[in-house]
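Pinned message: reference record for CD8B protein
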Amino acid sequence: GFCTNLLLSQTPEHILAQTNKKTEILCGLEKEHTGVYWYRWSQERQIFEFLIFSNALGKTTYGANISQDKFSIHGTSSHNSYSLHISHLRASDNGIYYCSVSQSSQLFLGSGTQLSVVDVLPLPSKTTQAPVSKKPVRCTTKRKAASRKGPCSPLIWIPLAAAVLLLLLSLISIAHRLHRMRRRLWLRIHRQ
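Predicted structure (tokens):
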């Protein structure tokens, strides 16, 4: 399960960056931890993606299909502050980035940083936009998450929805093939 927590302070709240440039997101921990995880929520693709984990010794583990040239984590010697460095920015990097720590079978998330990558940065304006409101996230333990009734987390329902969609597409393809085979057979019978 996941929950937002005041033990993690994440800055900045919003980043507007230019294509091919690099950026940095800071994550401060109230107390020392064995390491920090980074995740990205992509609104466009509707996925919550594991990016990278770095332990206290500086060893990093990357998520599936995550470029090691793009993401890196730098930590302080006190292990209470980590920064995520993202280079070679592309539009596909857009999303909300969360730093996270694991404690007592729970995954605690930072407040999130909205990254928007654009080709050209806009000229500074005098007006400021209201921050994007984030929905509160329910906090449950990993054990309870499996048996919990009600709405599933995106990590569960998104793969299920994708599997159902693939199944439907394959059924349509099979039905189309059967229809063509039946029609060919019908034509052969009537030609004779």
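Pinned by admin. Summary line: The domain at 8-118 is CATH 2.60.40.10 (Immunoglobulin-like).
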